[in-house]
Amino acid sequence: MEQVTSLVQIKGIRDGLLATFSDAPWEDQRVALLAQIDERPAFFQGARLAMDVGTQVLKVNDLVDLRDQLSERNVVMWAVISESSTTEQTSQLLGLATRISKPRPEEQRQFANTVTDDTALLISKTIRSGTRIEYPGHVVVIGDVNPGAEIVAEGNVIVWGRVRGMIHAGAKGNRSAFICALDLSANQLRIADEISATLKPQKDPRPEVASINSEGRLQAELWHAG
């Protein structure tokens, strides 16, 4: 199975996941992609998937069949990148995007080995400067978020450690998202479209949770777990 699934490489991009296909026959690659999803169904639940199919020449039935199979697994195919004009026209006919904005190398989403539930990413290490993590769900960090590091999540962000970087929760407009940390002295916090002022390091840091209050402003208050 490992040899089969290696035909398709999956990584994070700004708008979801990007599956890059090899030069193997299309049927082999289709099977390899679905095998990866079936191996980790909780991780892929609700994912938005773009595909870079290289020079593969794909017809309507090829993409429709795969789109349906992905949909059955709660994965949305939204873009197909191809060097083939036939495949590109097919994709456009189906209403799929044929261009995506690829992140710079340091902005590529980094995946942890453990997914705690259907929409959560668990990272058991300190996030260092220059690292940008994006995820279409909740992010839990057991470690610190250093200055110059960024976390962008569509859900909540919980940091069991010290935050000195930038955190953006509810990145797709979820104003009910929140950010929790043991030491919330971030360079900047964002929830949906609300942005905090720079937070100063605390002499006696205490766990805090940041959220948007009833007045529509981003505020932080003591975090009473449980």
Question: What key phrases describe this protein's structure?
Answer:
5 helices; alpha/beta; seven-stranded mixed sheet; Pectate Lyase C-like; 2 domains; 226 residues; five-stranded mixed sheet; disordered N terminus
CATH class category name of the largest domain: Mainly Beta
What share of residues are in beta strands?
25-35%
- Counted up, domains total 2
Distance between the termini: 42 Å
Mean pLDDT: 82
> Architecture of the largest domain in CATH?
3 Solenoid
What share of the residues lie within helices? 10-25%
Strands, count: 16
Q: What order do the strands of the largest sheet run in, or round the barrel if closed?
A: 5-6-8-10-12-15-16
- Helical segment tally? 5
* Multimeric status of the protein: single chain
CATH topology grouping of the largest domain = Pectate Lyase C-like
Largest sheet: 7 strands, mixed
- Order of helices and strands, N to C? HEEHHEHEHEEEEEEEEEEEE
Global geometry: elongated
Helix-and-strand structural type? alpha/beta
* Weakly predicted, low-confidence segments: 1-5, 103-118
Gyration radius from CA atoms, angstroms: 20 Å
Description:
The protein is an alpha/beta fold. The chain has five helices and 16 strands. The longest helix is centred in the first third of the chain and has 14 residues.
List the helices and strands and how they pair.
Layout: H1 2-5, E1 8-13, E2 16-21, H2 26-39, H3 41-44, E3 48-54, H4 60-72, E4 76-82, H5 85-93, E5 114-117, E6 120-123, E7 132-135, E8 138-141, E9 150-153, E10 157-163, E11 166-169, E12 179-184, E13 188-191, E14 194-195, E15 208-212, E16 218-222
Parallel strand pairs: 2-3, 3-4, 6-8, 7-9, 8-10, 9-11, 10-12, 11-13
Antiparallel strand pairs: 1-2, 5-6, 12-15, 13-14, 15-16
